[in-house]
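Re: the pair you flagged

First of the two:
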Amino acid sequence: MNPNEILQGIYERATATLATSVIENEAISDRIEFVCKCLGNRAGVRLLMSCMLGKLHNPAVDPRNPYTEIGGDNSFSGRTYDERYLTAFINKHRLPCNPTTAFLTPTLRNHAGPLTTEVELVGRQRELYKKTLELLEDVAKERIAADVVFVEVVRVLLIMRQENELRMASLLEAMKRNDDALPLPSEAIVTLMQQHLACKNASRLPVLIVAAAYQAAGARFGETHRPLLSHNAADLQTGSLGDIEICLVGEESVVTSYEMKMKRVTMMT
């Protein structure tokens, strides 16, 4: 089977066993759940999925060798499987993963050797990388099959997707019930924004604030913002000049670009 057919089969098996784990080994099950639910760093789950896909597509490879620089018949390009097949699969099924490849994260792009348990990957959540490498070794040592791991990963991600959708639906329903409530005073809005900006992982909010300002007042001076691109992807990948691109109404050429940083505002011409 080609990679797309493998992914379709994995998805069908995951949806068929959504309510029940397919793994009997509790330690392996716990490792998979930790990697899937580590919201602070989503590189681990994409790395695991890429290596499982490579192993299923070519059983002769070692899932711990996702770099062609390693050489030999048992290495493969994990990044190719990630970018060429997994990205479309993740987007199609709206799985809660990073929108871009795991192999461009600082931890993995600076590494080109086997991902054994003896390797200590330096990055956020060392426990995440430790458990991911243990899972790769579980498959390499045939303690568990690659397809079983992959099915379990997708199953957990589908459950997370459902939980996120239910949470969003609940919030939207609460907003509908409050349609007749009095609007917040400007002071309360400013306070809420300050509290949000002070939260961890709130880097997207400044982008939305500037975009909202252009939506509210941009028509008066003939400017508007272009559609916002992925906030987790590098500008080089998206082809954008910055986080927000401003162009004249009715035109495509960018006249102003904003790059959001936690620094003093500077202007470049």
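Second of the two:
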Amino acid sequence: MLTVVATLVLGAVFGLALAAPPGPMNAVIAQESVLRGWRSGASAGMGAFTADAAFFVLAAVGVVEFVESAPTLKAGMVAAGGVLMLYFAYGALVEAREGAAFGVDPDATGVDDDPTGVDGDKRGFTKAFALAITNPYQIVFWLTVGVRMLRPGTVDVLSHVPYAGGALDGVLVVTTGSPALLVGFFLGILVWVGGFPATLVAAGKRVDDFAPAVAGVSAVVLAGFGVVFLADAASSLL
């Protein structure tokens, strides 16, 4: 029992370590959270989470391996992801300029035609899912690391943390082959999906100008990754 609990905890650490670093997914989650509230931010996070779950299933049945073996298809996905990021960056920039304060949806017209907030939630979910499902780097992760979590062996958890540059290699090596590791991994992502928007909402309620600032930063992050993705796609096709 203690072994299972420990494996769950390690899996959760793995999921948190991969979900927390800055990137296009967190930029979208941040933007939705401060402009439309916790539920919209969490919904965006669930969009990325759903894409990860889909990638896991596709990797398990071999589809991801096919994509990785087709350079032109992979480059096309990179380019599509880059275009989407630039498009969403433009939207975030517009919202940064028009959003008056925390929780003020710049799309509001004065007439509440969506009192439940469902449309806003769907928008955040769709944006994050579209970005994640066209991200070939997530495909590479699930092909090289994700599926291995169910196969006997080991995985160096923190060596896969983005931007660490190998500084965390060997710090946390766990034994794979247990479903508990995978369950903990997804639980860790869910903790981030709920906790990150909640933190932003709590901060935003204390600083009235927080929402436009976050939307502006989100625009810069998305635009930066969009340019990188398009450059990567171009270099792959040349």
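The chain has one domain: 2-237.

-B.
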